[in-house]
Amino acid sequence: MAHHAQRALEDLRHKRELARVGGGIKKQEAIRASGRGTARDRIGMLLDADSFVEIDAFATHRTDDHNMFLHKTLGDGVVTGHGTIDGRRVYCFAQDFSVHGGSMGEMHAKKIAKIVEMAERVKAPIIAMWDGGGQRAHDGIASLGGTGELLDRLVQCSGRIPVISLVLGPVVGVSALAATLADFTILGEEHGQLFLSSPLETPEVIQGEIDAEGLGGANLHASRSGIACLIAEDEVDACELATLLLSYLPDHNDAEPPFVPTDDPIERLNSDLESFVPDNPNKPYDMVHVVKEVVDDGEFLELFEAYADNIIIGFARLNGQTIGVVGNQPKVLAGCLDIDASVKAARFIRTCDAFNIPLVTFEDVPGFLPGVVQEWGGIIRHGAKLLFAYAEATVPKLTLVTRKAYGGAYLAMSCKHLRSDYNVAWPTAELAVMGAEGAVNIIHRREIQEALDDQKEIVRAELVDSYKRKFGDPYVAARNGWLDDVIEPQESRLRLCRALSILKSKREWSPPKKHGNIPL
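^ thats the sequence. predicted structure below, dont judge the formating
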């Protein structure tokens, strides 16, 4: 009996070793030589030392009617399990490119679906590391069946637990859809690629008009498609970015985001802001500077920095509490809202709302971007997404108007009428239907036309000053209760911290319904 037990232990160790080497030592060494890590290397980079507990190490594919599958590889090309990051429990998986190019067969997909379902049950975040060539053709429709289960599990997790995808190699087909169902998608700069259709089947690549990197590389998805929220320099950086993102997020939708004590006092005055914003409403400035001046320790994790950069989004903290930041960027398109900016901000707002993260809006917006391209592209529908997201959100909502808030864009950017909780403005702010010059040209067109030629500009200037006093002054909005206060710029941090502190207990009830019908 003792001999039998010894043989069983040896057999177990042998199988574990086979699972560890995946597609073989030579293939793993070739992957490392290319500058990429193996699945287990990556999990080691991500998790706390010795915290990983593997699940389904002995799972194998169920197809044996093809020569390449006569040898069943333990694990079927994906390493799944759980561990900790800075002591916080997480579930994770990493595709193994050494096994059939990381392609997703039936059991491969079912392994991932199982770990995702386990994460949802225990309400722990998921970190997904993707590096695979799409669905495994040799498994036939069974691979699509397993993938379908995985997609369903990922959708069920949405809004319940944070899901972060790291794309560290080429990811093709439905696997790319699965990767981008995450709340946040990080691509490796050198090797991270996403394609719905294989480059081998794309006419522009076949004809030499563009290469694979130009079709689905990291920089393309960061600047053009808006899929990559962050770009990692290498795989270690990707894991560090995922850890940083996770530090702002709760474990699940019923939990509060992590509180991080700070030595940055809430009474710290923002004297630099007194003269930072130009008096000229048409002169640009960097809203990121305003955000960093206000938040704890000047730390702001900006997301989608290269995409729709006329609006900024990201995470920061106020008095130790996580906040989601949304801000117009006056140095790009004057801070106008366009299609991409509206969609970018709307999704971020809904993400913050799902995970109990208060929203702080830094507003300086002249309106929606005009033009045929925008109108034909559906700016009405896409702009409505932003308005819908703000109105739907039940987390604390704070808004600071730094310079101007005009027209429909004023309404869309977390105004008091959409149940924002705390709205303040600097004394130089203008809240109006449109800028004074444009309004005067419409309202007083006849008066200006009838004035003598040498008096037209004088008359126009007087009318503009009069309009600003009557309608553009922030005290007009304050008198109507649409601003809670007009504050000195140097008090911005103090006021926002105090407001956020009192809003911690906010609870908002709405009539039961399945869900709203956002204009997608």
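The first helix runs from residue 2 to 21.
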